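seq:
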Amino acid sequence: MSEKYAPEVGDFKKTSQWKTTFRRLCRNRGAVIGMVILFIILMMALFADLLFDYETMVEANNIPERLLAPCWAHPFGTDQFGRDMLARVVHGSRISLAVSASSVTFSLVVGGILGAISGYFGGWVDQVLMRLMEAQMSIPPLILALALVAVFGRSIPMLIFVLGVSAIPNFARMMRGQVLSVREMDYVAASRIRGNSNTGTMVRHILPNCISPIIVIMTQSIGGSILA
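struct:
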């Protein structure tokens, strides 16, 4: 009888959690369609100057073509000054996307770090950080934004800071919950036994397994930031 083949350790290829998550995302038809639509929107915003001339279609008045209904020449119609609405939306989306992406990135980094530290170490660190997050959540975001703008003034960087600060508790609480569910897994214990540092354990083993729900709340936060 022939001996059964016993695969050796070297026969298995190591696949990172990031690659596995990306493959699962690509298998989801709805996710792929959403990514394609988002890619088109981003490309239109990025190359807005090539698609629509800013001076003639966004700023210049064209009274004879005012308040036109949607047509081939003006898919979104025109406003009361004859300016192309699609061109104004595309050019305006550059600022909206830049502000929303920057504010969400700021809140993701700060809130994610705070939530990861809180969930991983627990104890008094968890109590202090979560009480601070709950205290901020007790303040209505609009009131907090008005107070910050009144103190620091109005500008695009301040708008990014205000929107980012108001969303920090959401990311912190979400990250904390994910870390609490992951930190007791066997591979985390194995990482500690091998002598890996707390930072290395979080970056290599905990955060990659917490990324899926964070991506969901991140996309929702971008939409909320644009509306704000």
